[in-house]
Amino acid sequence: MSAFRLFPSVRITIAVALLTEAAAAIAGPAFPRRKDGLWEMRVETSAKGQPMTLQQCADAATDRLLQEQGASRQAEARKPTNCQEDMRSEVGRVLTHKEVCKLPDATMTRLTVVTGDMNSSYRVSSHTTYAPPRAKQDESDMTMEAQWKGACPAGMRPGDMVLPGGMKMNVVDMQRMTAPMGAAAAAGRAPTQAEIQRMMGQMQQSMSPEDMRRMAAEMQKATPAGTGK
Fold this sequence. Notes:
This protein has one domain (about 5-220). It is about 35% helix and about 30% strand. It has helices at about 5, 15-25, 60-80, 170-175, 180-185, 195-205, 210-220, and strands spanning about 35-45, 50-60, 85-90, 95-100, 105-115, 120-130, 140-150, 160, 170. Residues about 1-10 and about 220-229 have low confidence and may be disordered. InterPro entries: DUF3617.
């Protein structure tokens, strides 16, 4: 069972986590950066909630900051979990990245594959396994498919992301707020209740009451039946 089933309120942050993971993965000099403009992304996980579709206004500066934050988060996560990059391959328009982490109760292996030309469309897939299998989390999958839609519309600044339900947040700001959640995922564990509450408190300070109501409604729709309380 995926950890995201146990914490359905975290599901809104999956897109940012995967986006940051992909940004860190493509930070190598041989891989091109994304084209400036509006990108539409469809995110799906192995949990049985609905796929999410969102939009982000991207430019070189915000993508570079995401890369730096993603690399920093990965470095911090590797310290307590003894994570090592096992393989990195860049061939044409395909980047494959594999890392292995020694956890107290298992070995976690995460394989991330990025494909596409970064000018019109790309795809990021992440598959995580545990050996020996865990009782509540033996493996998990995340997939993001992105398409370039043109110039960013009026009212959207670089880094702005429109989430399901019409909420708008800046992805760089949101990445800072969700950093503990990303570190938990990188370490192969579910976030603690304190980490969730801290993130929600920061969101309440930066979001309007209407956006908070929209987010609550979207999280309710994303909750698989019979899970999450």
